[in-house]
From TrEMBL:
Organism per entry: Aspergillus violaceofuscus (strain CBS 115571)
Stated name of the protein: Tyrosine specific protein phosphatases domain-containing protein
Superkingdom of source: Eukaryota
GO MF, one annotated term: phosphoprotein phosphatase activity
Domain Tyrosine specific protein phosphatases: 126-180
Entries under InterPro entries matching the protein: Prot-tyrosine_phosphatase-like, Tyr/Ser_Pase_IphP-type, Tyr_Pase_AS, Tyr_Pase_dom
One Pfam family here: Y_phosphatase3
Length: 254
């Protein structure tokens, strides 16, 4: 089922799902068993590794986290490529603007950081897009810390490129809110240590929201500033032939 969630202590997988199965505008569906998404893998168990490698056949993992956000070394058979989508120090101002806006206008708070991510994460996104183009037979897992912001933007762009309805794109994003519930307590504590507990942001719990309007606002920026997803991918340096190839990689016949 599209959007089926799996988070389980047995596997150490949170906010994990296959993005495949969503219907596309041309009558096809998003390809199943090709692109998976999740929160960070720092709690991944041996059974989780076996699930990823042996049952799902995942051969490649893209880790969008900064080097300060933790790491996990997997067993043989799965290659992990670290492609940081955000540098906390270089991006400190928009990050702090995000946290400081959560109490008054959470949708704006996410848009502030999402607009920044569209630029800051561009090189990481291009690396993953190029891999998808060049390796159509290689199932991949894309993750960041929570699996909803950096990962969420890229997945929303991919689903939109494939022709998935905006309603389904936003619903897939919203699923992350439930997917990260078991992580909120530990992630809040880590955030406070990183930001500084002396002046904790008000309504910090809203940082863990994945309200559809937040991604909707981000996609409006993609339309208005870049001329749509294809325009944004051109901004990253891909040409129309490459973009069309990626689109075809993402879909399969119903």
């Amino acid at each position: 089922m599209p959007g089926e969630l799996s988070f389980c202590e047995t596997y150490g997988l949170y906010n994990f799902r296959d993005i495949g199965g969503y219907p596309c505008s041309n009558g096809a569906v998003v390809r199943r068993g090709f692109i998976y998404r999740s929160a960070g893998l720092t709690q991944l168990t041996t059974l989780g590794e076996l699930l990823l490698r042996d049952e799902l056949g995942i051969k490649y993992i893209f880790d969008l986290r900064a080097s300060t956000e933790g790491s996990k070394t997997l067993t043989a058979g799965i290659i992990t490529q670290h492609v940081p989508a955000l540098d906390w120090e270089q991006s400190r101002q928009p990050i702090m603007d995000h946290f400081n806006s959560l109490a008054e206008d959470p949708i704006h708070a996410f848009l502030v950081v999402y607009e920044h991510l569209l630029i800051a994460s561009g090189p990481a996104f291009k690396t993953i897009l190029t891999f998808i183009k060049q390796h159509p037979g290689c199932p991949v897992l894309i993750h960041c810390d929570l699996g909803k912001d950096r990962t969420g933007i890229l997945i929303a762009l991919l689903l939109t490129l494939a022709g998935v309805s905006e309603e389904d794109v936003l619903e897939d994003y919203h699923l992350s809110e439930r997917g990260i519930e078991p992580l909120i307590a530990s992630k809040t504590a880590r955030l406070l240590r990183h930001i500084g507990p002396e002046q904790p942001p008000r309504k910090i719990e809203r940082h863990f929201w994945a309200h559809p309007d937040s991604m909707k606002a981000c996609l409006r920026v993609v339309d208005e500033v870049y001329g749509g997803v294809s325009g944004y991918f051109r901004f990253l340096g891909l040409n129309d032939t490459e973009i069309d190839c990626i689109r075809r990689r993402l879909v399969e016949a119903e």
